[in-house]
Amino acid sequence: MYYTFPSCMTTMIRCLHVYSFGVFVLHWAWNWVCINCRKILWMGLYSMTWCTNSHSNENREHTRNEMSL
What we know:
Layout: H1 4-68
Keywords: Membrane, Transmembrane, Transmembrane helix
Transmembrane segments: 12-30
């Protein structure tokens, strides 16, 4: 009884260490993914707005040319 208790405790501690390490890695990976996704989303939004702005500017110039004709 006395001999099995420490080994059980060490196994539990080892499991806890592995679990906490796994949680830490998952947390770090999740943060990395979130930051990168945010960057990618911002870049996508920025490029989309830039494309729409350039298109609307072209359309505005077209209408201005047609109006002058």
